[in-house]
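Q: Convert this sequence to structure tokens.
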Amino acid sequence: MNTEISRGSQGSSHWSIKRAFNWTRDYLEEKGDEQARLSTEWLLADACNLSRIEVYTQFDKPLSPDERSKLREAVRRRAAGEPLQYITGSVGFRHLNIEVRSGVLIPRPETEVLVDLALKALPAAQEGEAREPLRVLDLCTGSGCIGLAIADERPDTQVIATDISPDAVELANHNAALCHLTDRFTAHVGDLFKAEGVDSAAGNERFDLIVSNPPYIPAAGMDILPREVADFEPKLALAGGEDGLDIARSILERAPSYLKKSSQMILELDARNVHAAADFAVSLNTYNSVEIACDLTGRERFVLVEA
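A:
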């Protein structure tokens, strides 16, 4: 990597944010970053502890040696294709700032639509009337973003989350602490429904809502994933088997035993297999209704079922 940005002999005043911005953008463009300007905004904002807007309003600000060093390492990682979220360590999701780490799937903007659907599926909040918290189950929680957003926006919920990855569970509980939601969100290591607080659910202990963004990429699709996804994000959280529905089918088969009567489950899936998942749900003959919903781009991405 060109080390021009780190040459201390020129003094920190020589490297203003504007000069560092132009150099970083040009360098990342040379390395094939198709969003070089956006990457530069993120990396400079993180290195200098600024907002992305402040990067532009403080162009004359000189970088300190520590800021140059942090930016140099970040640019090296981005030039190698690493996702911005892993480099900066966090991502905005709904109203929350979610910490992300290598080995755990990065939250996607389209998954915020799943939260919208979930909030609509929950019984209406009843102000001034004491009642037991609504029970929500978040399967394949990853960073915890879905369950945490629900807990944040519906304080009358109690969210139990599961993931087969201990690293994901540790991160989800860490994010709950960062978001001050540990009283309403707890993640456990488990294979879908086989986890603490879930596998014994019965009667009144069943859930008012189940949500999941399970691994759903078909085998053929794994070979054509973008490099920064294929090379850096965990395959365990991506690969859904031959047709992408191995995990989704297991969830659909077992969910009725964990849902309260007339309660819903919402799955986020690949647009290529969402209809197959819906057809499978209908074939089970255990759901009162099966629907498909679109993301913000109009792609059919979500299966909604009612027990």
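The chain has twelve helices and nine strands.
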